[in-house]
Write a structure and sequence with these properties.
The chain crosses the membrane at residues 44-72. Keywords: Membrane, Transmembrane, Transmembrane helix. The protein has helices at residues 16-30, 37-53, 59-75. With 77 residues, it is mostly helical. The chain is built from three helices and no strands.
Length: 77
């Protein structure tokens, strides 16, 4: 899809890493008042639980993966 494609996603002109950095800075500054904090923490908890249950993945890897997935979903819905 080209950036001029009217049917394309609205977020095509944004970069992922700067958006993620801005979101993380907002979470760090506002704490639990930021709208992304609770979903990201929930994703981290679910990932840690899944990592603890799976034999190959450890809970820290699951925690980071779960938080990463939820952060991505908050940035790119």
């Amino acid at each position: 899809m080209s950036p001029q494609d009217p049917k394309g996603p609205e977020h095509q002109d944004h970069e992922l890493l700067p958006d993620a950095a801005a979101e993380l800075k907002g979470i760090a500054k506002q704490g639990m008042k930021h709208p992304s904090t609770k979903p990201v923490l929930t994703g981290a908890a679910v990932g840690a639980l899944a990592g603890g249950l799976l034999p190959v993945v450890t809970w820290p890897i699951g925690l980071v993966a779960g938080a990463g997935v939820m952060l991505y979903k908050r940035i790119r819905p």
